[in-house]
Amino acid sequence: MDTASFKFMIDQIRYYKNLITYVEYLSDPDFDYDTLTSDKKSDEIIFRYIKKQRKYFGLDFFDLINFTIYIFRTFPDVLEKWQKHLHYIMVDEFQDITAKEFKLIRRISEKNRNLFVVGDPDQNIYEWRGANMSVLVDFEDWLNNQCFENQFDIKCKDIIMSENYRSTKPILAVANSLIEKNNNRVKKDLFTQKQGGQTVVYYHAKNDKEEIKFICEKIIKHKESGGKYADFAVLYRSNYVSRFVEQGFLNANVPYVIYGGIGFYERAEIKDVISYMRLVNNTDDDLSFLRVINTPRRKIGKIKIDIIKNYAKNNGTSLYNALTKCVCLEAFKGCKAKEFLTSIEELKEQ
Fold first, then answer.
1. Is residue 207 part of a domain?
2. CA 11, 15, 20, 25 torsion: positive or negative?
3. Which of 135, 261, 299, 336 qualifies as a FRET site for 177, CA 20 to 30 Å off?
4. Which residues pair with 116 in a beta bridge?
5. Does any domain span residue 108?
6. For residue 16, how many other CB atoms are within 10 A of its CB?
7. Upper half-sphere CA count for residue 311 (Cβ side, 13 Å)
8. 49 and 16 in contact (C-beta within 8 Å)?
9. Is residue 154 one of the residues assigned to a domain?
């Protein structure tokens, strides 16, 4: 499957999971997944994906809200427990909330009705994944919406925080003049008590080479005038954009430091530990098995992995169980497959 087809299928799964009904049979241990059939290839892929989820007891990002809403709807006592537990609820970055997320927040705040939200429609950047600014702009209407079983029927108090403590007047003047063109927003004019500030300069380069050339020239000129390299910061939206910036600085002999890096749970060693824990908890987890089978190295290469995969496929079992059957084969002599199995079984007993 090429990249475009893969992205298309991710979108299809997202659209499918907008219908929360799939949660019911994904939660049912007696559900017969063979009844999920379709003439469309994309539907077949979705059904196979959901079947795999059930096998690994796995939830993806789209499931988290859906399962919580399903649990609250199916088990009122669970909903009541959390309603009693959460006396005050505050939601930050509310401009990026989806209608489904608001439904969840609305449910757990029904009992105590102490809901405080913080957001700025002018900073909404997640409409592409379902964020609905009207939930914040028309918050009171959404809160008292008739689609909910229990009605709040209350008035909300708005607190507009217009004073900016970070930016200078020239920056705010540009920001206000641009953002006031938006239609779906809460009207406000930002102001600051800070004095001074340089005029904002806009430069539209034809390509990345011209862009980094312009940046380097500005930095070097400032440095030659007695300034410091530390007076500058270059911001970019994604890490992959940094390549041409770094290359340009290297070519121009401009020293730099990159701030920000790999998140904690994105580190290889953390992913390895989590995969070990998942495999100990569920030896049918083929994804975790493939990640840790040769970490650390156990001389289990591609040929041995293919033997394991073929046995698992032909016998309808997991890769871990397949290894327990294949470990005595001639091909596995000299590797540390037995030690791996022993370690997992010992951890399971702890």
1. yes
2. negative
3. 135
4. 90
5. yes
6. 17
7. 17
8. no
9. no
